[in-house]
Amino acid sequence: MKYQSIIEQMTVFEKAQMMTGKNTWETKDFEKYGIPSIFLSDGPHGIRKQLGDADHLGLNESIPSTCFPTAATVANSWNLKLAEQVGQALGQEAKELGVNVVLGPGMNIKRNPLCGRNFEYFSEDPMLTGALASAYVRGIQSKGIAACPKHFAANSQELRRMSNDSIMDERTLREIYLQAFETVVRQAQPDFMMTAYNQLNGEYTNEHHHLLQDILYGDWQYEGVIVTDWGGSNDHTSGVIEGSHLEMPGTAVSGAIELERAVLAGRLPETILDQRVDELLDKVMKLSAANVEKRTSLTDISQKQHHQLAYQVAQESIVLLKNDKEILPLQQGQSVAFIGDFVKTPRYQGAGSSVVNPTRLETIDIVKANYGFSDALVVKGYHRSGIADEALIEEAVLVAKQVDVPLVFIGLTEITESEGMDRTHMQLSEDQIRLVEAIAAVNANIVVILSGGSPVELPFLSKVSTLVHGYLGGQAGARAMMDILTGTINPSGKLAETYPLSYHDVPSSHCYPGLEKTSEYREGIFVGYRYFDTVDKDVAFPFGYGLSYTTFEYRDLQVNNNQVTVTVVNTGQVEGSEIVQVYIGHESTRTFYVKHQLANFEKIILKPGESRQVTLMIPERSFQYFNVKTNQWEVDGGVYTIEVGSHSRHLPLVYTIEKEATTNATPYSVVILPSYFSGQVSDVSSQEFEELLGFTIPESHWDKTADLTGNDTLSQMYYAKSPVARLVYRVLTYFLERSMKKGKPNLNLYFNYNMTFRAMSKMTSGVINSEMVTHILTIVNGQFFKGTGRLVKAYFANQKAIKNKMVVR
């Protein structure tokens, strides 16, 4: 061990203290051993170091920092160099503000459009996600700061995220939900990794032997630290045994006592505890050696430079989705009106633990003057809350009649996209839809500008000729949007996710979210465009799609082994950027495949008439699938199709090559798994899903006659045996519904609503320990006096133990 001399001096209790946080954001320090504390902070798209009382949901104010476009937005840039620059800026700001570990990037796969945290994630595609996340990690860690990719793994819904069990087969797990994490570990070597709240096939991820020992440490040779999501530890002793290090937030003395008792009882070998302490110390010492400041504000240089970077990122991430009449870019002398609540109060980031207090915030209403529109009319158009108001629509229609081009700013509001809650549908608010349709009826030149971090249904799509999507553009997104609208910048963003016509077209729609115990991933590997393209289902906009004010032509595809070369020509009149995309397809009777999958990409800039040869390597993994019989990656063998073009449904250049099979072991049969061989996975039977899984589907429903357990949620108290518990549930539900009606969901209440009982011992800084949780459950399960008596006794015993340990310390 690297720090054996220090560890030998420490007591078992002191070593146990190292495995839990000092408080909400810091690790434990020991001055007598020369062990410093390091600071962890949220930061997927901006550093959120809180002022005053700490909380993990972004409720309290934080030090101002640059609010960059969210990951869902940056992904549309398809620009790895730009993503790495964002990482560098995040690392620099963390360094200035005294943060050692940036809790990001978020890189879960967008399995379903309704996931409440999709704005924090890059893409539905693991190749694109892995490439962008690796760029972020390299950038952050280049500043001596640790990156912490999250949430590992298969975390696809917010509803009951602390207890839900993701049920999937091994191939789907490896190819879709772990592929990006593997890329990050192998290419960027992050110092930290955050495990997810959920279970995976019956085991919590933070203590999952197969996930941690077999795959992360074994197959991938990960050498970093594992930290729980805040309150995400189930059995910390089991977690430490399987390779987890840090339980956050701090459970103070109570958590350390539990680990100490596990060592004394022989459940946790002290040698393993020593190993975990040594591994954590290795990162703590390395990070504390970096020249981290503890400023209360960013330097003026960082504020200025990073605002400019946020502006550049937003420019490259805006997607022009429709421009049939070439209304955009706006022409000099045209009269315009700015319509929508987002004109003055933009949607520029999500909600929850990633909320950033921006150093400055540009709005369309303010920056429009810089583009010659200082006198243009601005009308609200709709209420952000979604409350219908005919007067606002009538006012907007009247204004739209008077101008050449009405610019209508709509999209998802804060209440619809947030950590802790999933969307219940894929629709925009009814008043926004009515506003667009009413304006389109009186002015055919309507331009719709969308904001939001996830796809929405677009019932008015055929009625408008122009549609621009800014996603969540960060603090400088308004100026970037005006650049696109006026032609100052040529749009170059392309979708990192498919836009379905309807939510019911999504293959997981029938089983999302998992409402009670489990979430069944019956669609398997057919996620996003892998499904839509395979079954040739119509979509609003395909994966990788985005328009430009110029045009491009693809020529002269050449393939040499795994090297692809193609010539791209700008055939239009203005300079523009194109994203060259390479896909691999394969058909087989031995196993099932998607039609094609992204293998590589590159963003290039071309002047009018300019041509360029682009050479891209196809990773060998793109020709492989995970064989559940051999338990390794294999080549099926046969003919593979290499397709090159501008998006997943425009791949004009095609080349075929042959590959030899690496095994004769055939894992699947078309007779047993017909849905998967055809790709028609929107309604897979339980019998067929069990054949894919290789085990019996676990029970998905709660047993409402059984006692509630530590891994049940507070939301389940509606059927608790105790009338007191049922009353608490009704009160909690009342205040939740009240906050929703106000248009401002109480995230703290939502967290508690979906929190497990055992999380009480993880989120109360040691005031409640696991024994007390047991007695609380006794009360909830109908034995009020027995539970209360034992709870009071356990409380004082816990306080005494804490006091004794504090004295010893």
Distance between the termini: 25 Å
Largest sheet: 6 strands, mixed
Strand order of the largest sheet: 9-14-13-12-10-11
Helix residue percentage: 25-40%
| Total DSSP helices | 23
Estimate the global geometry from the Cα principal axes. globular
Low-confidence stretches: none
What class would the helix/strand composition place it in?
alpha/beta
Strand element count: 26
The portion of residues forming beta strands comes to: 15-25%
Mean pLDDT: 95
Radius of gyration: 27 Å
Describe this structure in words.
The chain is α/β, with parallel strands linked by helices and 809 residues long. Helix content is 31%, strand content 15%. The chain is built from 23 helices and 26 strands. The chain has a six-stranded mixed β-sheet with strand order 9-14-13-12-10-11, covered by helices on one side. α4 packs antiparallel against α12 (300-317). The longest helix is centred in the C-terminal third of the chain and has 25 residues, at 784-808.
